[in-house]
TrEMBL record:
InterPro entries: Redoxin, Thioredoxin-like_sf, Thioredoxin_domain, TPX, Tpx_CS, Tpx_Peroxidase_subfamily
Species, as recorded: Propioniciclava tarda
Residues annotated as the enzyme's active site: C60
Name of the protein this chain belongs to: Thiol peroxidase
Role: Thiol-specific peroxidase that catalyzes the reduction of hydrogen peroxide and organic hydroperoxides to water and alcohols, respectively. Plays a role in cell protection against oxidative stress by detoxifying peroxides.
Amino acid sequence: MAETKFKGNPIHTNGDLPAVGDQAPAFTVTGANLADVTLGDFAGQRVVLNVFPSIDTGVCATSVRKFNELAAGLDNTAVVCVSADLPFALGRFCGAEGIENVSVASTFRSDFATDYGVKLTDSPLAGLCARSVFVVDADGTLVYSELVPETGQEPDYDAAVAALG
């Protein structure tokens, strides 16, 4: 079980995050249009997974905006922003914010959070995803993994982009 913090207090996930160098776990999440989104949909592309608790918090919204800006300059790279929010909320946010360079996806009918070891098991956020970032290369190998140490902190955008090589 991995540990992060919520307002300075330790909180835990359901397990360990996948290790850098391993094949990224396959997943199926639900896109804003209610269609399935799978890792296989991005075969041959690099994938950045921006994982967060809820689009309705300031830091989560900021991470989606920031990755949207970064994605505009990334070749052969898909950025997928993943949370437990319903697809409708994710789509509404992207529409209102003019978010066009990233995809959003919901874990609401998925084992994604469990399979990636980011499902929070305690605290007021139990059941949501821990703030984390994963980078998968074009061959499906995990080349970067970050569990953000404090839920209220933004991820290390520079390190994620650097992992794309």
